[in-house]
Design brief:
It is a single chain. The protein has one domain (about 15-149): Hypothetical Protein Ychn, Chain: A, CATH 3.40.1260.10. The protein contains seven helices and five strands, in the order H-E-H-E-H-H-H-E-H-E-H-E. Helix 2 (about 30-45) packs parallel to helix 5 (about 95-100). It has about 150 residues and is α/β, with parallel strands linked by helices.
């Protein structure tokens, strides 16, 4: 292995900073992986938080809650995904959201996206901890590793 590998591996595994994820996409696969990362970080003892923007907010509505939206690429694999959800090999997004809350992941709704999409706070599920702007979120996540999905 190259000499730098041990340093990179140590930095990734020994990082006690939190993980902050900005969820922009409403595509099932992207939301699924973002929540997987948030849950894994929480299980590793890292603070984990998600800033939910734009189309990802559709999964956090009390009514007409999205469960399986796909982008163009995902549509080509829709049958495989649906079969694996039906068999229980992969979880529904709602189950991941519940598990994230149980593990202490904090979920924040973007106020600008809420305004753009005409979504009020009382239309969002109880799993959302609060709504805030990007400036507040970035201040809160200042020492976190930030991912944009």
């Amino acid at each position: 292995m190259p000499p730098w590998f041990n340093n990179v591996f140590r930095d990734v595994t020994m990082n006690n900073n939190g993980l902050a994820i900005i969820l922009h996409s409403g595509s099932f696969d992207r939301l699924y992986h973002a929540l997987s990362l948030a849950l894994t970080a929480a299980a590793m003892g890292r603070e984990s938080r998600c800033f939910i923007t734009y189309w990802a907010l559709e999964y956090f509505r009390k009514t007409d809650r999205a469960e399986f939206n796909l982008d163009r690429e995902g549509e080509t694999h829709k049958d495989i995904l649906e079969e694996n959800i039906r068999k229980g090999h992969i979880h529904k997004i709602s189950a991941f959201i519940t598990e994230a809350k149980n593990m202490g992941v904090r979920l924040y709704a973007c106020t600008a996206s809420m305004g753009l999409l005409n979504i009020s706070r009382n239309e969002l599920t109880d799993e959302i901890d609060m709504s805030m702007g990007i400036t507040t979120f970035l201040n809160e996540a200042a020492s976190d590793q930030i991912l944009f999905i």
